[in-house]
Amino acid sequence: MRITCPLCGERDRREFYYYGDAVYADRPAADAAPEAWDDYLHLRDNPAGETRDLWYHEMGCAAWIEVTRNTVTHEILATRLVAGREGKKAAAKGRGKKA
Amino acid sequence: MPSLIEKSACDGLLPVSAGGVTLSEPAPERITSVAPFAGKEAAAGKALKALGLGWPGPGTSIGGEGRLCLWTGRGQAFLIGAEPEGLAGIAALTDQSDAWARMRLEGGGAKAVLARLVPLDLGAGAFPVGRAARSGLGHMAMILHRSGAQSFEIMVFRSMAASAVHELHQAMTALAARAAL
Amino acid sequence: MRIEGRGLVDRSAPVGFRFDGKDYTGFQGDTLASALLASGVRVFGRSFKYHRPRGVMTAGSEEPNALVTVGRGAGQVPNVRATLQEIHAGLEARGQNCWPSLGFDVMEVNDLFSNYLSAGFYYKTFMWPRKFWEAVYEPAIRRAAGLGALSRQSNDEHYEKAFAFCDLLVVGSGPAGLMAAREAARGGAEVILAEEDHRMGGRLLAETHEVGGQSGAGWAAATVAELASMPNVRLMPRTSVIGAYDNGTYGALERVGLHVATPAAALPRECFWRIVAKRAVLASGAHERQIAFSNNDRPGVMTAGAVRAYLNRWGVAAGQNVTILTNNDDGYRTARDLIAAGLHVAGVIDARDDAPAAGDLPVRTGVRVIDTGGRMSLREVVVADRDGKVSRIVTDCLAVSGGWNPALHLTCHMNGRPAWREDIAAFVPKPGMVPGLTAAGAANGTFSTRACLAEGAAAAAEALESLGRGAAPADLPEAEDGAVRIRAYWEVPGGKHRAWLDFANDVTTKDVRLAAQENFASVEHMKRYTTQGMAPDQGKNSNVAALAVLADATGRGIPETGTTTFRPPYVPVSIAAMGAGGQGKGFAPQRFTTSHKAASERGAPMIEAGLWYRPSYFPRPGEATWRDACDREVLMVRDRVGICDVSTLGKIDIQGPDAGRFLDLVYTNTFSTLKPGRVRYGLMLREDGLVLDDGTTACWGENHYLMTTTTAAAGLVMRHLEFVHQAHCPDWDLRMISVTEAWAQFAVAGPLARELLNSVLETPIDGEDFPFLSCGTVRIMGIEARLFRISFSGELGYEIAVPARYGEALYRDLVARAENLGGGAYGMEALNVLRIEKGFITHAEIHGRTTAFDIGLQGMVSAKKDCVGKAASQREGLGGPEREQLVGLRPIPMSRQIGAGAHLFNEGAEPVSANDQGYVTSVCYSPTMKTYLALAFLKDGRARHGQRVRLVDHLRGTDVVCEVMNPIFFDPEGGRARA
């Protein structure tokens, strides 16, 4: 698997550390309800298809990267730096399963 | 006053040669990490220009032998060989002179040696002279800089000097054995 | 038998080698198979289950029968295909899966019991009596199973791995591959041409076709010479491309030293390549098929294409009186080539009703092959005509052509399935199954030489265009352009004896029909039930025929029955190649401190903390065990002074206007209020509220902090800090970088610590200059150093840091001074005892499931601010009396020995998990307090000081009653560190 780091270019995926779903990057407010924190920490969609995850270029430039890829076709569709990304807070509330 | 004896990172390990390729330790130089604070990128570039260099974009370097500014990561560069004059207050500075084992790999087979350990395209087109990269040397984090058509500067953590020399030397002798077939 | 005037071997270079204890001679360029065939050897192996004598069947890497063991001792390699092994002086090989010899194998008795050993027999047998399975059946099956054997000796031969990059990877160097490589290279692309064989040319080397007016082999050699002269071409012979992976990555196995008579120690035996290619062309050719009929597995039954290859490429006659069985025109080529070489053709059996006009060839149509004779070497072929009349053909070789299967395996490596083409009775790749990979030539179901050349050129043009380069129209050389005329013919009906499909795993048509009968009707089930396709050839010789038999048995067509998929590797890959570089020192980097040499000179054994090597203890003359040294070192630190290298702890330099604010976010307690020159202990949580790490952070100056982390977690903490910054507060103005390696740092601990330091500092200090938990710059022998007053031992202690270049020198100096004061160096064992005596935690206690509450530090979670993990740490169940809380334990009586990992129970309760009250994390013998001490987690522990619990370790047989107490066993007021 090869991931294009926005700074370093296309690299072997062994240079990266995989963290998990991109929702991790949208931290709930300190006073958010417990359900919001539970959602953020524990509940995930598991699509067969397009997913967005967070990777850290550990053996490279130390940038955190949001990778959009397809878990069925293995295509990497897009990568962008986590820092300064647009639509930062967009998705947090709408995702995940409700009890 | 007595003084403490200095040891370089690769003390006792280098130089080694095989198959026309040599791995040696360059003379120690001052290395300073430079990370401009928010909004101070232009000021940092200006201060570096005053040193005869400039701020390098990702994957590049400015300068050469004796005085070099090397891109080393997100918002970060290493100033090598020169004192970080005019940068206080503009960038976060730390002394990295002792943190790295620096090695120079030279010879016609240098690229093939690195192909055993570095997952990068190091061809003249993809990685020309002056190009810099942070990647891996085997399992070790590494800063790589192409200093010449047949020479590369390799930096790994000081504590891993022996491992880096071992891996590189092994690759050198393996290639020398292939050439002897 | 060797034929004069034929073949590409170098007859001026004879090579001596040994097979099965006998000496033979071949020529440079021979494989083991060709050299042995030339010498008249017929039996090359014994089949897997029935131990039937087997001969070589093919001339390529798909060989299922001729699997031999090469070499002796540690370097011995089992299951080598004799068709791929180049001979060299001194090569030693032997047959496998036989005892005592290939010629006489005791296990052939299995063949007599074949009725009981058909597919899946082991699911129905070995069941009674139950006890016998473990003691009798399984060991016996293990001994009988497998083909070749490993030496079981440690092998330190060298293997390597390497990376390569290119615009176009061409797999295979037959006509399609050579054209693709040539055209792409001429167009300026960076090309890698990988060929499994040691010589490039593919089937051009095996056939007598002409290309562009010269011999196929000659055209191939000329093209290879042109490619070799181009700087943008890398030729990789002896390289099998074994897998197609994501994003244009291909795995390849190169045989580097397996053909060399006396390889240098540094010469790798194999190299495992990871090749990244923007585009790739699969020109891997095709494999010829066998036809199933009674006793079709005898030595001497081969593929028709292999007979031609041995004749034309190696000048070897596989037989002198050859019969051909064919369902397409290819068999006739074998007949013509044999006759042209002066050999005799006993018959050409054409399975088609409309056989072509064949001049004077002895063609027979309308007959079925119903049996063969000759156990150790084919003697005759028995045929029956339409009326059932039986006749025998005396013959020493049966060359079978059942059609050709494109070698499309790589195209299926991303879960694609091929498509069935009725006109060639074969599966072919579908475009796009692997992004960026195009099949060309026989691998694509295109079989004429001219068409292969054309497809190779077309594939190159397509690749060049996608790379943004133009392509000049290729000049295609003249070559034969014959059409395929084939009749699908998988097995001869009505045979009375077993008919083999999978030669390598001894699977017959009967087995496949049995699978269908037992309702394993899916091709995936049939495969696992019969083991067809699961041998070293991975079904290359049997897949299509087996699924045809299954289709027939289940009343379906071939496309409907479908095929199993293919996964990497395409050919067997040694684990040594895949794990190359991972032996010995190559397994992981070793990290050494600046004091390593000095510590080693003192005989200190090392322990591993992450990748770091740290001294365990420093034995002195007269000390017999590690405990002797450790006990002495502990008392030495408590009474005098000790020196310990603490450089390995992570040190992170954080600067910027928002640095303090950032520390307030990552730590539970407040750091923005910390003044320059002060140090504070901090606790860091994960976002789920559990403890991530603890450590001290110093405020070095205005907006400048130095954070320490635990040794093994340094990288993890750095990653966490970068994540918090980049994801949650990217606009905050701060920068961080590791300075772990820049500084050599040493703990100076004990009542005489300050006295020692003052003997090296240029300006002496007193208790006020550097109060407890302070830091600052000092000068030592002309250099600027960093001094921290912190203590992990609980004694008066400092940590002094110098640039790493001075580390070794300073360490030696400090240890000498300490020894002069009656102290000395101390290691990890003593460090651990000292901190346990003080109740200081490490990652043994903050192991990932503990909260701030559990370790008694809930007061450190500031109520006035948010921090990472705060919200989740307040969840129900993460605090309260039900939690296992940190306590100290002391055995009763004090002479009893205890160990970590034990569990805790109430006295009188049965020590089972339902009654579990907690567990022990750290234990030491304390020479200071003359007793074992433990740190443990106990339910409601803080409310139970003074009570007794039972410490039980079922594994080690420990059962000791302990007193629960404050974990700060020694100097609970902490006065000694503040002296």
UniProtKB/TrEMBL annotation, chain A:
Q: Which Pfam families match?
A: SoxD (PF04267)
Please give the name of this protein.
Sarcosine oxidase subunit delta
TrEMBL record, chain B:
| Protein name per the record | Sarcosine oxidase subunit gamma
From TrEMBL, chain C:
Q: List, for all copies, the residue spans of the domain called Aminomethyltransferase C-terminal.
A: 885-971
**Where in the numbering of this chain does the GCVT N-terminal domain appear?**
596-865
Span-the-membrane segments of this chain are none
User: Keywords of this protein's UniProt record, alphabetized?
Assistant: Oxidoreductase
Pfam families registered for this protein in UniProt: FAD_oxidored (PF12831), Fer2_4 (PF13510), GCV_T (PF01571), GCV_T_C (PF08669), SO_alpha_A3 (PF17806)
The stretch of residues making up the signal peptide is none
Coiled-coil intervals: none
Q: Which SUPFAM superfamilies does its entry note?
A: Aminomethyltransferase beta-barrel domain, FAD/NAD(P)-binding domain, Folate-binding domain
Q: Where is the SoxA A3 domain?
A: 496-581
NCBIfam families attached to this UniProt entry: soxA
In the record, the note on similarity to other proteins reads:
Belongs to the GcvT family.
The protein's matches in PANTHER family, at most eight in alphabetical order, are given as: AMINOMETHYLTRANSFERASE, AMINOMETHYLTRANSFERASE, MITOCHONDRIAL
Tell me the protein's name: Sarcosine oxidase subunit alpha family protein
The organism encoding this protein is Defluviimonas salinarum
